[in-house]
Amino acid sequence: MKIQLSIFALVCTLAACVPAKKYNELLEREKICSEELSKYKASSIENEGKAKDLQVTVDQLRKDVIKLKKDTLDLGSNLRFLQSQYDLVVAQNEAYEQKLDQMRMKGAKESATYQADIDAKNQELQRKEDALKVLENELIAKEKLLIEREERLTELEEMIKRKDDAMKQLKTRVSSALKGFENKGLTVVEKNGKIYVSLEAKLLFASGSTVVEPEGKKALVDLSKVLENEKDLEIIVEGHTDTDKLVSSSHPKNNWELSVLRSTAVVEIMIANSKMNPAQLMASGRSEFHPVDAKDKAKNRRIEVIISPNLNELYQILEGK
User: Which residue of 6, 28, 52, 62 sits 20 to 30 Å from the alpha carbon of 21, by its own alpha carbon?
Assistant: First the structure.
């Protein structure tokens, strides 16, 4: 009975702070955010691993091409040497045959000696012809493999260049669309083949709030309109806070929850105000653990929209599909 009264008192206390419906909604929302964060963190780690594997494969292909070129040069040198030896033996054989004709007039004994020499030379000539044929076949196979590797490497490099060029063009379009917010806490940079759109919290949220302000919403809508027709992208929205501790009995209860709820609020606005595919988006929170400026807390309180190219097509080429 005392336990039931304590629970009842606790519920009453919570109800005084937050309406029951709002509290339940926040709990459900936190659960969904946590599940999505786990899923998208796994996806992000997997994609980073894929990108590293891709670079390792490209580097290995370059090394293979260099080795194949060296093998081809060596085989070509051996082929030319055997060809010269072959030509020398042919010339010697012809000389012996001419001399044999002359010796036939001088006696059968000398003819037999020269015939034995000719037979030995013919056998040597056959061995050299066989070795030459083996080398020619090996050279053909190496050249074919070299062509295939070079074509594959060229295709990969061209595709990577196309993706890099596309990301540069997209960065230009994003910068142009958000130009009016440049001096309001918004920056657009490109690094490591990705586009980073950073929006300081002062542009998006009031202190401690997870509700996007009108000015910030306009920037997010403009960004969404640029991205809505880009179907070959993966977009991560990361929430970041400063190191000031947030302790509250209601939601958000701490910096982790604040960063996740803010990134989720941004994703919802982007989806609601564009034709973006929700499957391309991921909302995540980094709390206070990825600062960009140790001396300026305001810069650490931010939302980062990280735009990455989809690398699935590159992996299909690597797998020969």
Answer: 6
Q: Measuring CA to CA, which residue among 204, 182, 206, 208 is closest to residue 302?
A: 204
- The distance of Cα 241 from the centroid of its chain, to the nearest Å, equals 28
Task: Tell me 278's DSSP state.
Answer: G
- Give the C-alpha separation, 179 to 165, whole Å: 21
Question: Edge-to-edge strands of the sheet including 233-240?
Answer: 186-191, 194-200, 302-309, 233-240, 281-285
Are 227 and 307 spatial neighbours (Cβ–Cβ below 8 Å)? yes
Residue by residue, pLDDT tens for the chain (321 residues) are 444 444 444 444 444 555 788 888 888 888 888 888 788 788 778 877 887 887 888 788 888 889 888 888 888 888 888 898 888 888 888 888 888 777 777 777 777 887 888 989 898 889 898 888 888 888 888 888 778 777 777 777 777 777 777 778 888 888 887 888 877 888 899 888 889 999 988 889 888 888 999 999 999 999 999 998 888 889 999 999 988 887 766 778 889 999 999 999 999 999 999 999 999 999 999 998 999 888 888 889 899 999 988 766 556 555 655
CA distance 125 to 87: 10
Contact 112, 34 (CB under 8 A): no
Report how far residue 269's alpha carbon sits from residue 261's, in angstroms, rounded to the nearest whole number: 12
Residue type, 128: K
What is d(CA 284, CA 96) in angstroms, rounded to the nearest whole number?
Answer: 87
CB 47 within 8 A of CB 308: yes
CA distance 26 to 48: 32
pTM of the model: 0.54
Cα atoms found within 13 Å of the Cα of residue 246, Cβ hemisphere only? 19
Paired with 240 in beta bridges are: 302
